[in-house]
Design brief:
It is found in: Membrane. InterPro entries: Kremen_rcpt, WSC_carb-bd. Keywords: Glycoprotein, Membrane, Signal, Transmembrane, Transmembrane helix. Its main location: membrane. This is WSC domain-containing protein. The protein is mainly beta. The chain has a domain of about 120 residues. About 10% of the residues lie in helices and about 30% in strands. β6 and β7 form a beta hairpin. It is globular. The two termini are about 25 Å apart. The relative contact order is 0.24.
């Protein structure tokens, strides 16, 4: 008998102006038949939720090695490397310099920019998140991009819902 799996994801959001810790709830349910069915991965386990800090996760964006669109870096305006890198540090650093976008890459790099090329827009599939699988050097519970893949975040507008991209 063929195997069938159904998965449902729900997420909650916090306002962009929030200064308290986010309460994120997510639930998933799976129904399967067949002897080899395995549960699907919850996409919120594959990125760091930064909505409490005013940044939404857009996805895993390709860098120069995986594209032929011309730009060398997805976010070329500022870079900082540290063996204590976390997503919180990167978002705060880029925000403090007035950048709209921030991203982490290669465990320890933080990149900032005002815009990125449309060809660098992340895909919205759960599978696309697997490319940003490097743990941050400053907090191994967080993901900080991958090998030429950028965990891309966007600053939320004030008084607007701050929601992470939905991945299917």
């Amino acid at each position: 008998m063929p195997e069938t799996t159904a998965t449902t994801f729900t997420t909650s959001t916090v306002p962009a102006t929030s200064t308290s810790a986010a309460t994120t709830s997510s639930s998933s349910s799976s129904t399967s038949t067949g002897p080899t069915a395995t549960p699907s991965t919850d996409p919120t386990d594959l990125f760091t939720d930064m909505t409490a800090f005013g940044f939404r996760f857009l996805g895993c964006s390709p860098e120069e090695r995986w594209t032929s669109d011309g730009p060398f870096r997805t976010l070329p305006n500022a870079v900082h490397s540290s063996d204590t890198m976390t997503n919180q540090w990167c978002m705060a650093w880029c925000d403090g310099q007035g950048y709209k976008y921030a991203g982490t890459e290669w465990n320890r790099e933080c990149w900032c920019g005002h815009e990125f090329a449309p060809t660098r827009a992340p895909l919205t599939t759960i599978a696309s998140l697997e490319r940003c699988d490097y743990r941050c050097t400053g907090d191994n519970t967080q993901f900080c991009g991958g090998d030429a893949w950028l965990s891309l975040y966007e600053k939320c507008e004030e008084d607007e819902p701050c929601e992470n991209q939905v991945f299917t």
